[in-house]
Write a structure and sequence with these properties.
295 residues, mainly alpha, 79% helix
Length: 295
Amino acid sequence: MMPPSLTFRYLATGFLFAILWSSASSAGKIGLESAGGLVLFTIRFLIAGMLLLSWSIGIQRDRIPRGREWMHLFIFGAFNTSLYLGVFIIALEEVTAGVTSIALALNPLLIGAMTALVLRVKVSSMQWVSISLGIAGVAIVSYPLLIHSYATPLGLVLMASCMVAYSFSSVYYARVQWTLSRTAINGWQVLMGGLLLLPFAVLFPQRENHFDGRFWASVFWLVVPVSVGAVQLWLYLLKVDAVRASLWLFLCPIFGLTFAAVLLNEPISGYTVGGTFLVLVALFLGQRYSSPKTA
């Protein structure tokens, strides 16, 4: 059991992460009205990386990575930023924001399975029950949306691919014994991810880009609340327990559908209420009865 102070901090962190992270689909969809996805996200990553590193090096006085840390940062940035979010923004052009937020429901199962295999962490039976309930809740929420929403086979394949990349990056991060601060890790991996995407954004333009107010509003939201705020919260959650952290992703589809309904006029129905209840039950069981992390 966690100490009460840590429990409150952990719960507040988890809910805030889910809210901020789930807003990315709608913010990205708005930005896609002005520019191609690769251009939008490459600019987002480069700005976010420079801001984080300016704070890390200039304010926190963090040291520069050395030795094998560069390799760890490169691998983490390649999977967590370039592959996951780079493929995500391409998929977002093929499916609705609601469908992309639903795909996050795959991550708890993938992270739980990868954690058990890679880190040799025992996943308790109650955690598997909570994962099953969470998937059932998300399925109920998503049923009417999947029936009426537009999605291409390519979009669905791309979404599945980026979910696998995200799950791998989460387990990889939890596996490495980091000595850098979370701000430094986040800054370097985001900057590396943006640099890896830059050649593709330049060589393969998807459309004519308009750097208007809508574009920069989207970039601002994706940089500050999402790339800086949500990722910092996510790294904290991962270090507490990777499997516990993955359970917070069940809330992301719920919040994501809400953002899509408010900002993009996607529907909310009675299925949303019933599914949300199951998701909250799954979160309670997973957080209350999950086993402690082992080495």
